[in-house]
# Entry
Amino acid sequence: WMLANNAPLLELPGQTVRDLGARLISANAYLGADALLPALQAGAGVVIAGRVADPALFLAPLMHHFGWDGADWEKMGRGTLVGHLLECSAQVSGGYIADPGFFDVPDLAHVGYPFADVSADGSAVIGKLDGTGGRIDRLTCTAQLL
# Structure
């Protein structure tokens, strides 16, 4: 597509893909949630994909489950936020912000991976299994987002 459409190079204003000539080795693009939806709609339990944006791995199942329209920007934003909180797993359980003596996170050796209880409107509660290490609170979630 990039060669056929002579796509512009954003990092080199005024130049296009064809200007690279033989120097073009490969091109990579992150796919979004919309690329995963056809497989989910066909009933796939597992989807194998190329490079996919991390939050899309969570957003696509939410879109499929709740029937969200990709043009509903509020729900897309909320679903992407949930995906970003979950994508790095133990980071939101305190792994990102842990700093012994300053910001203690209990039992990181047995950290609990997060889950999200998401409602149809896109609101969510982030949690982890009882009895696992780490912590999930406003501060750990904010640190992961920022």
Remarks:
- Residues 89-146 form one domain.
- Helices lie at 33-41, 56-66, 73-87, 138-145.
